[in-house]
Amino acid sequence: MYMTMRWFGTGYDAVTLAQIRQVPGVKGVITTLYGTQPGDVWEREAIAAMKAEVEASGLTIAGIESVNIHDAIKIGESERDTYIDHYITTLSRLGEAGIRLICYNFMAVFDWTRSDLAKPRSDGSTTMSYDHQVIEPMDPEALFKSMQAQSQAYNLAGWEPERLVHIKQLFARYQGVDEEKLFANLVYFLKAILPTCEKYGIKMAIHPDDPAWPVFDLPRIITNKEQLLRLMTAVDNPYNGVTFCTGSLGTNPANDLPGIITALKGRIHFAHVRNLLHTGHRQFEECAHLSSDGSMDIFAIMKALYDTGFDGPIRPDHGRTIWGERGMPGYGLYDRALGLCYLNGLWEALEKLTPRRGSKA
């Protein structure tokens, strides 16, 4: 297991590499060229500068989250092959730089959805939350404006204004794209890029849809064990794998998270571990990583990862805003650092209680 934190880059993230370096147990970061747009070809010079900056801090780049996928690929429009070629070029350049993991998603229009980015909690912290009764009657354009207003002037990952200022046109383009068509387009994309992944040893790790149900009737195709296994079977290649996000899959309390981990043994390349509290039907708020603060058994999740031999990067995911910190919603330093130390403690206990063969524990 390789403990990491997400970092959005200088000029985009309120958290610095120097601060991340001081969190006990952190070995690397998950990062991206945050100023690029879906469909852009990443320049070698920009990749090299990103890598040099991270390594100068004493950390490594454990993976990229994300090389975002152009909507033409998801929709299956005529120019999708051009954008797939752009993606392949970027993968090649990342591979040449020694970067071997890409987290990505295949969600239509929105990468993730919340109704409140700073909901007060009883402990005095604030957190991101979702209430379907609030979201459902909203116009998508109104939701975009609400997210922008709550962003505290940060560019939210997946809600970049360069794309979503054209939200009405995007919804029009997705008309006629149902779950089967979106899934077929995902398979087409993966089969096109996997030869390059094999050449450079790059693991593609798809992120589940968040939340795990349709929003504004947009198709959702990565929400449960059956859909994940379907994709692993449709593109049965070890470089086609999963980002196991407990927060996204956990939005649906019917999902047995340790069971899904067991079913995906060998295909989980990356893990986002966080907790959330279910407050009603399709209602939840994000909380501290500690099991008792939410609805998830984080020990059971970490044990399932350990028992199945997972050895990839893990990062604490969204945190609360605590201790008066100002930063990107969900991505402050303090609560994520607390969560990381908790996850490290669970992992150390697992190693010492049940050493793996060849382990020094």
Number of domains: 1
Which structural class should the secondary elements be placed in?
Answer: alpha/beta
The CATH topology is: TIM Barrel
Low-confidence stretches: none
The number of E-state strands comes to 12
Helicity level: 25-40%
Can you describe what's shown?
This protein is an alpha/beta fold and 361 residues long. Helix content is 39%, strand content 16%. The protein has one domain (2-353): Divalent-metal-dependent TIM barrel enzymes (TIM Barrel, Alpha-Beta Barrel), CATH 3.20.20. The strands form 2 sheets. It has an 8-stranded parallel β-barrel with strand order 1-2-3-4-7-8-9-12, surrounded by 4 helices. A 4-stranded antiparallel β-sheet has the order 5-6-11-10. Helix 12 (257-263) runs parallel beside helix 13 and helix 13 (298-307) crosses helix 14. The radius of gyration is 19 Å and the shape is globular. The model has no long low-confidence stretch (mean pLDDT 94).
